[in-house]
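Issue 218. Parser rejects a valid record. Input:
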Amino acid sequence: MAKRDYYEVLGVPRTVTDDEIKKAYRKIAFEQHPDRNPGNKDAEAKFKEATEAYEVLRDREKRGRYDQFGHAATGGGGGGGGGSYTGGTDFSGFDLGDALRAFMRDFGQGGSGGFEDLFGGGREPDHRGDDLRVRLALTLEEISTGVEKRVRIKHRKACATCSGKGGSGETPCTQCQGRGQVRRVQQSIFGQFVNIATCPKCEGAGRMFKEPCRTCEGTGRTPETETVTVQVPPGVANGNFIPLRGMGDAGLRGGTSGDLLVLIEEKEHDVFERDGDDLHVVLPVAFPTVALGGKAELILLDGTKAIVTVQAGTPTGQMIRLKGKGLPSLRGGKGDLIAQIMVWVPEKLGSAEKKLLEELGRSEAFKPPKPGRSVFERVRNAFKG
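Output the parser choked on:
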């Protein structure tokens, strides 16, 4: 693939100044730096491309040759290897190591535009508190209507004594000089690399106190047990969660509080089984009703009655769908109730019932068919619904 124009790579016009070239490269390099995008090959390629363009355009002699001859002046399509960012004009072997060394040369010594900006240092970090999770078990009845629940949680709140600050007489941390981070420079075959870690002394706050708060021991937060109210909307499902913003742990020394995530757990129901917004139920029906046709009664989740019409000759396993009798959906509307007919066979019979059934059993109408495909098809269709 043909190389892009170096001015296009940096997004600058051909009349660009040296300072503008550096600013344009700095912006791209910081966005695409491998340490900010671990494992991202696309970002790595853009980082190398931008650095290669910068190395040519920042040097007035190389830039002049490039303006006159284009990529031919830099060995753009050549096969020579080992092109270095420090000398020569052949960039055909320009690799990630070259790009990193070039970046370190101009932006790796800290200060404005250095590693503090790359890794977010130099600014006071927001030591956000941890998110907390709590499980909330609900019945299908509660899920059907929505419910208000109260749960007790243990979390860390902003210290009332110091208002979450952690103490008084604030002073920069002596170990990180107020950055909140410590750096270790390591040498490798690719040049210098800097490891950034949270300062162990101030825990990333960047500051210490001459007089730490005695209540919270300088952390700015204290443990508390609290009861919170959770509004559960109708139609939630197992695994859904409700976020309560700011109800997690308070942040360290005035940092933002985390969230409380209420995880929904669905209790098993004695009668109904859930399938999305639909409900399934096995409906026992007396033999005379399925043989002659009739009505069967079903108690719904809200305690009301639903009447199911059973057609004459309905087999066991037949599915009957009651539209809109399922659970409400979070997206609007309601699911269906699917009743599966089960022919009820009584376990105990009196002498009169036995005599009647024996009489019916002698009737040709009550003789079952022989096994065959037609019987199989009828049963299969019944379970399809």
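Fixed in the parser; the record now loads. The two ends are 59 Å apart (CA to CA).
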